[in-house]
Rrf2 family protein
Amino acid sequence: MRLTKHTDYALRVLIYVAAADGRQVSTDEISEAYGISGHHLVKVVGTLGRAGFLAVKRGRGGGVTLARDPEELRLGEVLEATEPDFAMVECMQEGNTECPLTGACSLVSPLYEAQRAFIASLDQYTLADVLNRRTRTYRRRLGLE
């Protein structure tokens, strides 16, 4: 299973904003730190804002801060908010008509079970868990110090 760049960038944005210790940061700053397209990053920040992970202040002097404490922000819920779907195989996609076994296949049930286990595993970890013991390293490598 591979996560989309949107989700990858969303996780990176959350790490950056959390490592900024409550300071409001601009999307340009995040874009520069990671070498991510500013245009794409604006979409990611929009998704995170709508999902309630970031507080977004628009316009001049705007920027983003965490909308929730890192201890309350579970990684699985970030994936659920940013991934368009978790269709591991074609028949798990809505409206699939390609596979003649769609609707009768026994493979789908174990795949859905694996998908739920994947999210449940990530939900055991919070953004704070990701930051713990690494915050100084993150801050240094991202140019926050």
Remarks:
- The chain has one domain: 5-141.
- DSSP finds seven helices and two strands in the chain.
- The helical segments are 5-19, 27-34, 38-50, 75-82, 108-122, 127-131, 135-141.
